[in-house]
């Protein structure tokens, strides 16, 4: 795709959890609780008018879903502040200091006063119906590949509650994550290719890690990507937790928007107008009482209905692929699910199919008065849900006449996106009245400037020299969530190469193999390395031990060695193994002499299964072979 030709423009918002001692507005520890919850409570939220008498469209959209919100809480990681039952404490100064440090590292201009604002949130992820956010600096820049990209602002805000589950009636959140400090970095919309977006996000992430004050691991950072093309609306994609997904997200979104512009052009050519798209919903249940489609039949058996609507001029367009695995019909289905609570829709571009026959499609088109250029959409559910769903389908069809509607979308695991809600408006933000502003004085800035950490490239050079690592391993460990543990163990004399490879490449491989490495505690990893250091086991046993400890987080490393049978062999056992192996292959020794050492080492170490030191085996093998030769 020619990104320049379509006018691709990208901006990024990076949200990173800060490694503070407390949450942003209370003294609770900023940790996730893995021990369940102590109590629950229920809320229903509703949008309120701003000072100008306006209601934010995104908030109204969430409210119309009519969901009941259940909150799970425990006494250790949440308090009355998270429950919105008492006013917040003053903003955590450490969080503001970390944001100020990043701002100065990227040449931002700190504000004189950090004013807390409320940002309306009515999806239930915040008990108060809003998120507190505060701008710390304006401007700034990062340099990537010889090009400078501007930052718009740096802010501190509180993280949202964790979504645990959702069904048609309720959403369940856990409050442990609510209130954990986040830094939010917003770039200017100056990236124009997927690679540029990835490179800029990676650079910002490396500077954040260079502060030494951010949390690491899955779920501690997420990227929101704003994407637009020429003649289209701005799309905000939320929830990209994997940096590597950014390129795919942008690539697929550019394809989606470009195809929507093509569909707009085709609709104009066909002479379709908004007034042509009537919300004339027709009950066609009788037509499908003998259908073989289980989806339709099951809905009718439950007392539901099958409703249809005609989309003038949309034949061949509802089934048009926008990007991999996404069609215009998929977009319409997303809206139908949100507004009607239905499981999905059928449209004539994909029928006959799903056990709906050609004859049934023919009768359907006749009943709806559909011309060859028209499409028909049907849905099966209770009557009110069917109507709400098809009205949403027609509304989305009307939006297709404008090309790309501005909206908020969520990232799917395959790099595609799905509709979430309309874009928020200006009425979303208003001042916080319960917390005093924080002053950023000249003295505070001077102190921060004197204590700025090294930039990533400087730190990389120092790491390569200090720990004798190559470029690849140095970069990997600097990006690792286990950096502090690496430094601690390296100072104790363990092999820095072994540490770096294990903490980055080996743990990544285990995670890809399905091992729950997120359940590995720092202490379990530390104990494993210390047992290698004191000779209780060998380095070859580390992957097996970490796999077991990840699956059994309550066990300790020393106990794991015994349970897995990874204890080191005694000196006598090693000597017997070497001598018996040499005797078995005495002909090889007489033929090759000391050159038999290599093959025999492999055989013996294979038999030892990590229970013998290679150095000890090598020494004994050398002695044994020399005795035979002599």
Summarize the structure.
With 630 residues, this protein is an alpha+beta fold. The chain is 40% helix and 20% strand. The termini are far apart.
What does the model show?
This protein is α+β, with helices and mostly antiparallel strands. The protein folds into four domains: 3-24 and 90-121 and 128-160 and 179-268; 273-400, 2-Layer Sandwich (Gyrase A, domain 2); 454-564, no CATH class; 571-629, Arc Repressor Mutant, subunit A, CATH 1.10.10. The chain is built from 21 helices and 24 strands. The longest helix has 25 residues, at 245-269. The radius of gyration is 31 Å and the shape is globular. The termini are far apart.
Q: Provide the β-strand percentage band.
A: 15-25%
Cα-atom radius of gyration:
31 Å
Largest sheet: 12 strands, mixed
Give the uncertain stretches in residue-range form: none
Oligomer class:
single chain
Helix content: 25-40%
What is the structural class? alpha+beta
What count of helical segments does DSSP give?
21
How many E-type strands? Answer: 24
- The number of distinct structural domains comes to 4
Instruction: State the shape.
Output: globular
Distance between the termini: 73 Å
Mean pLDDT across every amino acid position? 91
Keywords for this structure?
globular; Gyrase A, domain 2; 20% strand; alpha+beta; 40% helix; 630 residues
Architecture blueprint of SSEs:
Layout: H1 3-6, E1 9-17, E2 39-43, H2 57-64, E3 68-73, H3 93-105, E4 109-110, E5 113-114, E6 116-120, E7 130-138, E8 141-144, E9 147-158, E10 162-166, E11 170-174, E12 181-187, H4 194-210, E13 221-228, E14 235-240, H5 245-269, E15 282-283, H6 294-301, E16 305-311, E17 321-323, E18 326-327, H7 328-340, E19 346-347, H8 358-368, E20 375-381, H9 383-400, E21 407-411, E22 417-422, E23 429-431, E24 438-439, H10 442-450, H11 456-467, H12 471-479, H13 483-490, H14 496-512, H15 522-533, H16 542-551, H17 557-564, H18 571-584, H19 586-592, H20 597-608, H21 614-629
Parallel strand pairs: 3-11, 14-21
Antiparallel strand pairs: 1-12, 1-13, 2-3, 4-7, 5-24, 6-7, 6-23, 7-9, 8-9, 9-12, 10-11, 13-14, 15-16, 16-20, 17-18, 19-20, 21-22
Helix pairs in contact: 4-5, 7-9, 11-12, 12-14, 14-16, 15-16, 16-17, 18-20, 18-21, 20-21
């Amino acid at each position: 795709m020619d990104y320049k030709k379509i006018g691709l423009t990208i901006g990024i918002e990076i949200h990173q959890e800060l490694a503070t001692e407390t949450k942003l507005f209370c003294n609770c520890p900023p940790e996730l609780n893995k021990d369940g919850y102590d109590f629950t409570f229920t809320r229903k939220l509703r949008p309120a008018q701003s000072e100008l008498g306006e209601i934010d469209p995104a908030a109204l959209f969430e409210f119309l879903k009519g969901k009941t919100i259940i909150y799970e809480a425990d006494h250790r990681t949440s308090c009355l502040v998270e429950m919105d039952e008492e006013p917040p404490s003053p903003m955590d100064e450490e969080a503001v200091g970390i944001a100020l440090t990043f701002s100065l590292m990227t040449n931002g201009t700190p504000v004189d006063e950090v004013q807390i604002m409320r940002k309306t949130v009515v999806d239930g992820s915040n008990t108060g119906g809003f998120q507190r956010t505060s701008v710390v600096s304006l401007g700034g820049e990062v340099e990537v590949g010889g090009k400078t990209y501007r930052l718009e602002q740096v802010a501190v805000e509180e993280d949202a509650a964790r979504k645990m589950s959702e069904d048609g009636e309720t959403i369940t959140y856990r409050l442990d994550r609510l209130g954990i400090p986040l830094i939010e970095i917003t770039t200017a919309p100056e990236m124009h290719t997927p690679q540029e977006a990835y490179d800029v996000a990676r650079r910002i992430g490396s500077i954040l890690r260079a502060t030494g004050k951010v949390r690491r691991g899955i779920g501690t950072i997420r990227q929101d990507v704003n994407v637009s093309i020429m003649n289209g609306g701005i799309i905000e994609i939320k929830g990209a937790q994997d940096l590597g997904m950014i390129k795919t997200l942008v690539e697929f979104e550019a394809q989606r928007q470009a195809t929507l512009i093509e569909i707009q052009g085709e609709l104009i050519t066909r002479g379709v107008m908004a007034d042509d798209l009537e919300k004339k919903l027709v009950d066609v249940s009788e037509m499908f009482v003998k259908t073989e489609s289980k989806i339709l039949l099951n809905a009718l058996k439950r007392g539901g209905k099958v409703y249809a609507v005609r989309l003038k001029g949309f034949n061949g367009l509802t089934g048009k692929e926008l990007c991999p695995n996404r069609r215009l019909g998929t977009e319409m289905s997303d809206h139908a699910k949100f507004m009607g609570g239905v499981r999905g829709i059928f449209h004539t571009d994909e029928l006959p199919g799903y056990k709906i026959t050609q004859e049934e499609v023919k009768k359907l088109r006749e009943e709806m008065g559909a011309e060859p250029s028209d499409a028909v959409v049907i849905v099966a559910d209770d009557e009110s849900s069917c109507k709400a769903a098809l009205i949403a389908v027609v509304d989305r069809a009307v939006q297709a006449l404008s090309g790309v509607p501005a909206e908020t979308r969520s990232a799917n695991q395959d790099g595609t996106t799905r509709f979430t809600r309309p874009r928020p408006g200006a009425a979303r933000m208003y001042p916080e009245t319960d917390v005093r502003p924080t002053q950023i004085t000249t003295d505070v800035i001077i102190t921060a400037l004197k204590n700025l950490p090294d930039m990533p490239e400087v730190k990389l050079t120092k790491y390569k020299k200090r720990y004798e690592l190559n470029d690849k391993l140095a970069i990997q460990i600097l990006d690792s969530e286990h950096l502090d543990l690496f430094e601690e163990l390296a100072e104790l004399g363990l092999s820095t190469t072994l540490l770096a490879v294990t903490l980055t490449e080996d743990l990544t491989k285990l995670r890809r193999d399905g091992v729950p490495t997120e359940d590995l505690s720092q202490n379990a990893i530390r104990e494993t390395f210390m047992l290698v250091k004191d000779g209780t086991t060998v380095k070859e046993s580390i992957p097996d031990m970490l796999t077991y400890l990840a699956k059994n987080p309550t066990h300790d490393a020393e106990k794991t060695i015994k349970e897995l049978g990874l204890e080191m062999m005694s000196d006598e056992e090693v000597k017997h193994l070497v001598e018996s192996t040499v005797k078995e292959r005495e002909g090889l020794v007489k033929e090759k002499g000391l050159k038999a050492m290599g093959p025999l080492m492999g055989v013996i170490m294979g038999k030892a299964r990590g229970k013998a030191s290679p150095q000890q085996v090598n020494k004994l093998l050398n002695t044994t072979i020399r005795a035979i030769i002599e």
